[in-house]
Write a structure and sequence with these properties.
The structure is a homodimer. By secondary structure, the first copy, chain A, is of the alpha+beta class. Chain A has 5 helices and 5 strands; from the N terminus they run ααααββββαβ. Chain A binds a DNA duplex through helix 4.
Chain lengths: 147, 147
Amino acid sequence: MITGTADVHAIVQARLLEVGQRYTPKRRALIEHLAAAATPPALPDIMATDPKLPQSSVYRNLAVLEHAGVVRRVITEGEFARFELAEDLTAHHHHLICSSCGRVEDVTVPASFESTMDRTLDRVARETGFATVSHRLDLIGICRACA
Amino acid sequence: MITGTADVHAIVQARLLEVGQRYTPKRRALIEHLAAAATPPALPDIMATDPKLPQSSVYRNLAVLEHAGVVRRVITEGEFARFELAEDLTAHHHHLICSSCGRVEDVTVPASFESTMDRTLDRVARETGFATVSHRLDLIGICRACA
DNA sequence: CCGCAAGTGAGAGCGATTCTCAAACTCGTT
DNA sequence: AACGAGTTTGAGAATCGCTCTCACTTGCGG
């Protein structure tokens, strides 16, 4: 399900409305930036695009967008949180995390493996009384540059 | 590969020696606590066992043990980091994370699925020039208590 | 055009983790 | 059994992402 950027904006606007929030230029710029990024940017990466961006507004707007369900906070062992568009606005993917430099890359795995995994995890979750909403699969390793 | 507690202590001692550190009673107590825990404890959990433990020492010793490769820091979206024994001192497992209350439970998946996953991820990593050392698979959902 | 609700920016505040440093301990050596 | 060099410890200070506060601005309904 590959969604065009125009559709993304429409969806974001709709979800913000549901939560009683506006789709302001600042927020649009953030979404644009996240949609264009090849890798989930950390806050410094976002601020670097325009040094006079107030950091508090960026954080606040990311929180609003996260709350609206269009942005996801990616947890890494690095010092900064990273942000990406919610999964239903992009293709389902996983992360390659370099344990040496902290670099994060997006990857996809074969669809057949995804469905095997979904089936397996659903079963595991059911056995333990968990209602699974999603999974998080990351590969931890050493990237080409650090090797 | 299930390792007895006695062996764990021997391994920990050996790895600490390699890094030029001693296996002090405080560190032994930490390892003991982690080995007994059913779920990776956060710092408050550890401190709760003995309220007069100085938090700075706990943090420092966890860092030392992590550096020696016997303790692993588990990243969650919660406010506290959690700690568990390194994977080669326990059985390979994954985590069920409740997105509502932050509770973390250990789970294992069928061995057949593990090996399928290993093969798939190795291939993916090779294609992208990453040297994979490990993977991290977490199930995010709602636990029985929160449902 | 008014007014109110929502958004913005600058800085203060917060809280988990890390750092500092003097005192207490360990262990091989006399 | 005491010594001394090097570690470990504990209490508090310091750090630093991130969140909160609040006065000001902006934008949409009436």
